[in-house]
Amino acid sequence: MLPSTAMAFHVFLIAALLLLPLPAAFSKAVRTQSLLANPLSPDPITQEQQLSLAAPRTNASTLHFRLAHREHFALNATASDLLAHLLARDAARAAALLAAPNNATRPRRRGGFAAPLLSGLPQGSGEYFAQVGVGTPATTALMVLDTGSDVVWLQCAPCRHCYAQSGRVFDPRRSRSYAAVDCVAPICRRLDSAGCDRRRNSCLYQVAYGDGSVTAGDFASETLTFARGARVQRVAIGCGHDNEGLFIAASGLLGLGRGRLSFPSQIARSFGRSFSYCLVDRTSSVRPSSTRSSTVTFGAGAVAAAAGASFTPMGRNPRMATFYYVHLLGFSVGGARVKGVSQSDLRLNPTTGRGGVILDSGTSVTRLARPVYEAVRDAFRAAAVGLRVSPGGFSLFDTCYNLSGRRVVKVPTVSMHLAGGASVALPPENYLIPVDTSGTFCFAMAGTDGGVSIIGNIQQQGFRVVFDGDAQRVGFVPKSC
Ligand SMILES: *[C@@H]1O[C@H](CO)[C@@H](O)[C@H](O)[C@H]1NC(C)=O
Ligand SMILES: *[C@@H]1O[C@H](CO)[C@@H](O)[C@H](O)[C@H]1NC(C)=O
Ligand SMILES: *[C@@H]1O[C@H](CO)[C@@H](O)[C@H](O)[C@H]1NC(C)=O
Ligand SMILES: *[C@@H]1O[C@H](CO)[C@@H](O)[C@H](O)[C@H]1NC(C)=O
Fold it and tell me: What pTM was computed for the model?
């Protein structure tokens, strides 16, 4: 038992703690986490750093394959070159996505083809590539994965126009499983931009991009194979004989959008309407090895991997059927809710199709409606008092720090809050990224005046992002690459 004076003192102390207002410094303690501040590597990328895309786990109910970031195909480029290219592609893609809802009018007919459809720009159409077998026997094709578009297509011989790709161009004349889609087939009518070759009764497709690049050719049905022999028959693909654009290295594109022609929609009957991907950090500081690469999974395994996920409802824009919308409510920085984030800046207007927030695999830097971005950025600046500011910004980033000479740096935490109670606590490398070889790191989000906000792939790094189309929800599983 305590002596009574000591007891009285304790009672006083407890009462004082309960009654007195807490000191300001204590109540405002900024929650931090440790960033490993590795600058960009000055060394160019070598052959040894290229990824093996062999997939380890594929079975009858689950397709599972590895993804490589497009930078793994850029031999001899340095990390700084790659960042400059990435930011240029990203600006083009963001501009195309922002314009898309405004341009989503019914296509005009013009000589069998409708007017150009906007579904992302070639330079920015997806940052991650996967290997897919096309036809019987299978030709290996490197395909861009893109949640921002639907149509699956690849370059086909004979080429009227083909750009340079890695590996052989697929030749449908050598495939036993290739079949043309006829003009009256319902799937042909699902194309926004369909045509008909009446002589052959063969459906024609065309996808044109914002900068005038285009892929056009026969719409066909083909077998796709994945590692370990998993086969998916009768996938409707565009066999592009006329392809003009800058789809560097890739043979074509695997559309992962929400529309009816996308790959997940087409395989829904056999595999269910779900897929998930995990994107590892693409930068040199955490260069992925073959044992730590990005993956995408379709089918049962996609949702099985979601144990412990934080889910939010998947939203839809009636005017932009391709995109995955989520309802972003706000942010916390340093453990405190960011004030001044107005819901009207983040909400989708279903009548006009403007506003809202989409989740995109092919945009790198998150774009937030400008007032929201400014509120989050100001909160970050206020919380990051211990970091040395690097004046002037970098490219589209306006908040940068000089972390030169420091290895481990305490930085304020950042979380996104989504409808349905989902909170996504970002790892530090998802919002403070190295932009040069000398230790400048920038807050990797930006403001936009385009109406729609985009959650980009830098902010998705390290999470398994589950697109659960069956339950109409999107999940984020931390630390699960
Ligand atoms: C990369 O550099 C090496 C050595 O300088 C050279 O042999 C090789 O051809 C280069 N590769 C490319 C793709 O430029
Ligand atoms: C899309 O709409 C924007 C503005 O509404 C316009 O500036 C742009 O030229 C349009 N793009 C296409 C390809 O029609
Ligand atoms: C297929 O693989 C997934 C994980 O990759 C697993 O969850 C599922 O149970 C497997 N199914 C069969 C039939 O082996
Ligand atoms: C960053 O800080 C270091 C001192 O720690 C200084 O030498 C260097 O010039 C600074 N870098 C820039 C870009 O200002």
Answer: 0.83
